[in-house]
Design goal:
With 266 residues, the chain is of the alpha/beta class. It has a single domain, classed as NAD(P)-binding Rossmann-like Domain (Rossmann fold, 3-Layer(aba) Sandwich), CATH 3.40.50.720. Helix content is 35%, strand content 19%. It contains 7 helices and 13 strands. The strands form 4 sheets. Strands 2-1-3-4-5-10 form a 6-stranded parallel β-sheet, with helices on both faces. It has a 3-stranded mixed β-sheet with strand order 11-8-13. The chain starts with a strand and ends with a helix.
Amino acid sequence: MKIAIIGHTSHVAQGLYFYLQNKYEMFLYSRENINFFEKNDYDIIINCVGFGSSFRETTNWNELFELTEKYDNKIISKIEKYPDSLYINFSSGSVYNKLLTESDQYSLIKMYFESKHRSLIHLNIVDIRLFNYFSRFVDLRGNYLINHMINSIKNNTTFITNSIDIIRDYIHPSDLAAFILCCYTKKLNSSLDVYSKAPISKFELINYFVSKYNLKYEIKEDLQLSSITGIKLNYQAQNKIAETLNYFPKLSSLQTIEEETSYLLN
């Protein structure tokens, strides 16, 4: 099987490559060598183009849209020529936000590309709605809950949060790779949620890091948290339709955190 990854330096791409490289013929593309993409045919094309984990509030949304559209069109053009190929695009659980406004640009962009892909019903395209993902390849500069906890441990500082508990579902790269391979077993044009064996709450995470790595933390009731993709209290899969593809994740969110942070903190 030939698998192409476009945007291979991203966090998601590095984890996928790590777990697929020994089993399949891999083709890795970045903006610098994308011209070589046209020279081969592929069974699976995985689009990891987009912002990385160091994404900042100053993002130009129009620039992100144009970048995404450019590579999306390039991949669609390719699978039009090779209709048995599967195109994997990463969407987001943020598309479930029922109170979208014009300021929710990230969610709106993801919704646009999902709609575009559903209109191409003759092509094999799966938009994977990724909620949370974690691996040893994470860029710890990103403004994410898990990053703040790990950085506090590494720098021996105090992790500060509020008393509001939230739910997150961290997918292990091996489970994500397995999910993609399940999608290849059928002709598909669909958006599908991906999920771990079990989600985890913020305070379950805190308790784990306290017991394992002596995390110091402080609760500030008036602390206001922010997120470029919007504040989400319960961020996990809304359905498990992927079970019909025989996708059954092996690792829970906690197991993912345990395994991957051991490479970062030990």
